[in-house]
Write a structure and sequence with these properties.
This protein is of the alpha+beta class and 372 residues long. It has 14 helices and eleven strands. Strands 1-2-11-10-7-8 form a six-stranded antiparallel sheet. Strands 3-4-5-6-9 form a five-stranded antiparallel sheet, with helices on one face.
Length: 372
Amino acid sequence: MPAPPGWLRWLPAIYVVVLLILEPITPVQWPVSFLLIALPVVAAYAHGPAFVGAITVFAVGFEAILAGTPCCAGRVVGYIGERHYVASYISTALVGVLGTILAASRMRRERTLATVRSVAETAQRVLLRPVPRRLGQVSIETLYLSAAAEARIGGDLYEAVPTNYGVRLLIGDVRGKGLVAVETAATMLGAFREAAHDEPDLIGVARRVERSMTRRAEQLEGNEVAERFVTAVFAEIPDHEPVVRIVNCGHPPPLHIGGDEVSELEPTDPSPPINIGVMVGDGYHMDVTPFGPGDQLLLYTDGVTETRAPDGTFYPLLERVRSWGPLPPQELLAHLHRDLIAFSGGTLDDDTAALAAYRLPVEVPDCREAAD
């Protein structure tokens, strides 16, 4: 369970110090000690029920001291038993009871939230399992940022699978949020992990995933069928060909980074999003782009390009990546992460996922090893 901020834990002490400063400088007609009634509630924001109970006893006793000590009360006599002060003691005790209940309820909610986060993290490790950092001659790095405070998983997804046809990549964005989006993402990833090994071409992978998603959607009731579609990019980096094959299903175009050149790989003929093909036809189309050693592919979800600055400006991904110059995958995504946080002012409004794939330079064997 996360600890509250330090300043919040010290707030009751700060509150008492402020009252002690105000008491001797305010007129006698303004008994500032009555403000101690709120002290148990102040403590309840960061402390447990036992501490709130103790601070309530302290508040009542301190009120009595201030009321009964002439020098502190600013009067010539004490008023410890005066009816207004007695009413203050009773009010403080009642507020203390409410503060104790509030603290107990807050701690229960924090424990529940910690459990939810733990379950979400476990689900994320299962659903978005760690991608190997190297698959053959391809170096892979991933980034996932969730906009939800109470859960760290959403509808963005990615995967990288080594197959007999090369390294096959997927990045996607499920329409909607919550458990429905998570279930849809799980179905999508499961279908891709199987199809990537079985289908000889990338279009076949997209169609296989489409069929799996459609079968799953047909089992649902109501209008959820039309809502469970996924924009996605399927990519294939063959082991022995300096190309990358891409099927873009209504998703933001990947970035191709080749040295100092950065460009968007717009599809020549866009394919429909997954689970929409059943309604508009499964006209999937594949583009082939040169992709040699030292080239890098950046796949991302619209959470990146739709990140807004405080003035409403959208994040200019292409211009930013161009300004950074060539970076290896890990540094590229780390730089992207920091830049998104800084650009948005520390607040992300949507889930964000990114995957960087870098084709490693061909290793040149040593001359003596070649002679042997």
